[in-house]
Design a protein that fits this description.
Belongs to the calycin superfamily. Fatty-acid binding protein (FABP) family. This protein has one domain: Lipocalin (Beta Barrel), CATH 2.40.128. It has 2 helices and 10 strands, in the order βααβββββββββ. The chain is globular and about 35 Å long. It is mainly beta. A 10-stranded antiparallel sheet has the order 4-3-2-1-10-9-8-7-6-5.
Length: 135
């Protein structure tokens, strides 16, 4: 995992985001913001803590966590999820408790060239994938 720590990955494309948002019932401005976002992301480590940064233009959303411990994840201004992350080799596995009560799982797989984030949700048979290119 150390090869990927501190490396910035820029959003490139996605698959099945619309169906994922439909399943969660996300509409309006929040839906548009998610679909139009083209963030960069970065994972860093400091001692036992990791920080996952989502960079959206001038704004950065930073969430610091210890693997295996619950934390409050800031998603957007005023939107917080309960999350737990596990780091395994080149993967960051994240379990989020959506405000609807559904469990969301995001598996981020890092390689030298890209980061692939695959999202599944409890009760949904599909998956959504976002691809990021190393910069």
């Amino acid at each position: 995992m150390a090869d990927f720590l501190g490396k910035v990955y820029k959003y490139e494309r996605s698959e099945n985001d619309e169906a994922y948002l439909d399943f969660l019932g996300i509409q309006g401005d929040n839906r548009a913001a998610y679909l139009n976002a083209k963030p960069s992301v970065k994972l860093t480590k400091n001692g036992d803590n990791y920080t996952f940064d989502i960079m959206l233009g001038e704004r950065t959303i930073s969430n610091t966590f210890q693997p295996g411990k619950d934390f409050d994840e800031q998603m957007a201004p005023g939107v917080t999820y309960k999350s737990t992350c596990i780091v395994e080799s080149n993967k960051l596995l994240q379990m989020q408790q959506h405000p609807s009560g559904k469990l969301i799982t995001i598996t981020r797989e890092f390689s030298p060239a890209e980061m692939k984030a695959t999202t599944t949700a409890e009760g949904w048979s599909g998956s959504a994938t976002r691809y990021y290119k190393a910069v």
